[in-house]
Amino acid sequence: MRGYRVRVKNAAILHYELQSRSFKLSCLRGYGEDAKRVAGLTLSPSDPLLECLLRERTALDLEQLKEQAAKGKKADLAQSPLLRKRMEELKASCLVPSFLGKDLKNVLVLGGKKSDELYTETDLNVLFTLAQESAIAIENAELYDEVLKRSRELETINQELNQAQLGLVSALRETEASNERLNETNRKLNETNESLKKLQAELMEAKKRALLAGISSAVGHELNNPLQPMLFQKRYLREDLKTVDKLYFGSLAGKMTEPERKEFLSCFKDLNERLELIFDKSERLKGIASTVVNLVKERTGTKKQVQLKLVIDTAVEEVRFSSYWERLSPPVVTKEIEKELPFINGITQDLRGIFVNLILNSLHAMEEKLDKEITIKAEQDKQDPKMIKIEFSDNGSGIPESLQEKIFQHGFTTKGERGSGIGLFYCKDNIERVPSNQLLYSGLISLN
User: Looking at the DSSP assignment, which residues form a beta bridge with residue 305?
Assistant: First the structure.
C-alpha cells in the first residue's frame, strides 16, 4: 500500500456543500481547455449519476461496466445514456464515492490512466478504501473550520463590546469632570451617576457572557452532532475486528500462503492502530466540546451547605476511573484535610469540576515520572477565618517562572496539540468571578 501509485490524465472532486445542498466540482487537475467548461459544475443529489453511486456503494468504472454488460451483468448501468453522458461531461473514466456512514460526502472524479491501461479491480479497491478514510479527515477539517469561524465571530463581538465599553467610560469621565464644578446638589447627582456606572458595567459583563454562552453552546452542539454516531460505532467496530481475528485463526489462515498471511496480519494490525487513533481523537473532541459548552454557561444551581472533604474525595475518584487515569501509572494521593473544617455555601458540581481540572493538570505534569505524588491540603485560613484555603501540590517538573503569569489565560497551554487552554481558565473564572447573583465564590486562585 505504501508504494502504490496511479497516474491519471485528469482528476477532480465532487464535494457536497451543506449550504447549497448540492455537489460542486472543484480541485480540477489536468483538464486543460475543458477546465473553464466544467469548473463549478453543480449536481443535485437526485442526479442519476449520484443516485447510482449511492445505490451501488462502490467505485464506478465505465469500461468495467461495459465488460460486465457484455457478460449480462449490470447491463442497465453500462447502457444508461444519462450515465454515459454525465461521465463524458466530467471527462471521467472512473468515479470513486466517499461515504461517511450512510451519507455520500464526496466523489473522486478520475480520467483515464496516462498509460492508457484500464483500471484494475485492485486499483478500484485501493481507491475506494482511501476515499472512505479521507471522508473522516474532510469532515474533521470542516468542523475545525467551523470552530475557527465561530472563534473569529466571537473575537469581533468582543472587540465591539470593548469599543462600546471604552466609549461609555469616556462619556462617564466627561460627566464627572462637569460635575466637579457643580454645587452640593450636583455632587449628589454625581454619586447617582457613579452607581449607574457600576450597574452598566455589570450589565455589559452579563451581556458579554450571554453572547459567549450562546456561541459556545452552538459550537459544542455542532461538534457533538457528528461525534455521537462516530463514538456509538466504536463498540461495534471492535466487535467486528474480534470476529475477523477469530475467522482468520479459525479457518482462513490455513487457506493462505505465507506471503498472504504476512500481508493480512500487517494490514490487520495497521487497521487496529488507525481505528484506535480515530477513537482516541474522537474522545478528545468530545471532551473539548463538553468543556466549551460548560465554560461560560450561566450558573443556575442553588448554593447549598457543602462538605469540601466529600467533594475532594469524589473528584479524586472521578479522575481515578477516567480515561486519563487508565493511561497513566497511578499516583499516591495524600489528603490532609482538617477534621473540623466548616461547611461552605457552594455548588457541588462546580467545585468538583475545579478540583478535577487541578488533579488532571498534576497528572500531566508528572507523565515522565515513575513515582507520582499528589498532596491536597485543606484548612481554615488563619489570616481570614471566613475563607477556606486549599492547596494542591505534586512532585512534577513545576512551571517555569516565565510562564506563571500566563497559565490562567484563556487559550494558553503547555501541552501542545493535546491541550485546549481552557481547564485552568475555567477554574479561575469559577473561583474569582464577582458573585453578582450570589452563586459564585469571589475567592482567589494563584501559584505558590
Answer: 345
DSSP H or E stretch at residue 55: helix 48-56
Burial class (CB in 10 A: 0-12, 13-18, 19+), 165: middle
For residue 196, the tally of other CB atoms under 10 A from its CB is: 12
Q: What percent of the chain has pLDDT over 90?
A: 5
Query: Tell me, what's the pLDDT at 107?
Result: 92
CA 58 to chain centre: 30
Please list, in sequence order, all residues whose beta carbon lies within 8 angstroms of the beta carbon of residue 147, skipping any fewer than 6 positions away: 219, 223
Rounded to 5 degrees, φ, ψ at 117 are -80, 160
CA distance 74 to 444: 73
CATH class, 304-432 region: alpha beta
402 half-sphere exposure, CB direction, 13 A CA radius:
1
Segment (H or E) for 29: strand 22-29
Residue 448 in 3-state DSSP?
Answer: coil
Q: Give the predicted TM-score (pTM) of the model.
A: 0.38
Which helix (H) or strand (E) segment is 100 a member of? Answer: strand 94-100
- How many other CB atoms are found less than 10 A from the CB of residue 114? 12
* Residue 4 to residue 1: CA distance in whole angstroms: 5
What CA–CA distance (Å, rounded) separates 203 from 157?
16
- CB neighbours of residue 356 within 10 Å: 19
Q: Which residue do the cell numbers 451543506 mark?
A: 18
Ramachandran quadrant class, 295 (left: phi over 0; alpha: psi -120 to 50; beta: rest): alpha
Amino acid at 143: L
pLDDT band, residue 316 (cuts 50/70/90):
confident
